[in-house]
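Duplicate of #3305? Posting structure anyway:
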């Protein structure tokens, strides 16, 4: 028994040193950091949630990445056509940011009492005609989409900002009936219309001018006469049911300041 007690007494200083070293390591010289290099206090900040038009995915993802890098606040995002986003917002009753493809969807959210502060336009949605590389149907102007035999792939005319704008143009030119006879199918996003054309499933379609930016080797673009084109503003707004109003306002300010240059990098027009 005496030998065991002596043994325990000898171990006390060693145990004490181990505990002390562990405390010092945990304390460090400041707040521990996460993998991104942000202090833990910043890493623990609540994330924002944004509803964003599918056609804006690439520039918005870059904005969200830079904002998280700057502030430590992550921006989680639902990308979909603008009509579907309105339904999601109404069903969920939560979220912080809304960035659809055009102002009419902002107006609908405002009428539903969902909209708070807004900034923009950050960029412009510019309808353009796209064709498979080589333009096999020899489309030169929007009126050519009404010619018999042209096979058209179109974004949904109700759920997407681009489809809605396209049909306003057709109505203005009084060619809607002829164009509708040529439509093979409607797609839920403009990007899907572009993808189908790149796969050879049609002669032409209308989508956002920026869609051609990264697919120049597979698509040709015919710009629409500005005298008949309908160019939509792209805004960004805070939602009234946001539980992080100040953080959402800070994000809006960041989008207003940094957004136009980022959208321009992805082929969007930023001046009317």
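Output from current build:
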């Amino acid at each position: 028994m005496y030998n065991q007690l002596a043994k325990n007494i000898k171990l006390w200083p060693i145990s004490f040193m181990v505990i002390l070293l562990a405390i010092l390591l945990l304390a460090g010289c400041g707040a521990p950091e996460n993998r991104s290099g942000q202090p833990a206090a910043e890493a623990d900040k609540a994330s924002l949630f944004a509803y964003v038009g599918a056609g804006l995915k690439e520039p918005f993802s870059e904005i969200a990445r830079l904002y998280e890098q700057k502030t430590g606040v992550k921006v989680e995002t639902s990308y979909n056509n603008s009509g579907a986003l309105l339904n999601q917002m109404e069903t969920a009753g939560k979220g912080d940011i809304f960035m659809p493809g055009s102002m009419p969807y902002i107006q609908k959210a405002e009428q539903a009492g969902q909209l708070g502060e807004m900034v923009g336009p950050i960029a412009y949605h510019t309808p353009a005609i796209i064709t498979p590389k080589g333009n096999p149907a020899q489309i030169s102007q929007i009126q050519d989409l009404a010619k018999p035999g042209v096979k058209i792939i179109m974004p949904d005319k109700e759920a997407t900002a681009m489809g809605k704008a396209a049909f306003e143009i057709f109505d203005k030119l009084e060619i809607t009936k002829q164009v509708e006879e040529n439509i093979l199918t409607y797609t839920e996003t403009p990007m899907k219309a572009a993808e189908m054309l790149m796969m050879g499933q049609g002669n032409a379609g209308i989508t956002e001018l920026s869609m051609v930016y990264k697919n120049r080797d597979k698509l040709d673009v015919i710009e629409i006469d500005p005298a008949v084109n309908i160019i939509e503003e792209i805004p960004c707004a805070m939602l009234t049911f946001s539980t992080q109003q100040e953080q959402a306002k800070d994000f809006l300010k960041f989008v207003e300041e940094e957004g136009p240059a980022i959208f321009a990098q992805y082929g969007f027009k930023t001046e009317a």
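Confirmed duplicate; merging threads. Residues 2-27 form the longest helix (26 residues). The chain has two domains: 44-123+234-265, 127-223.
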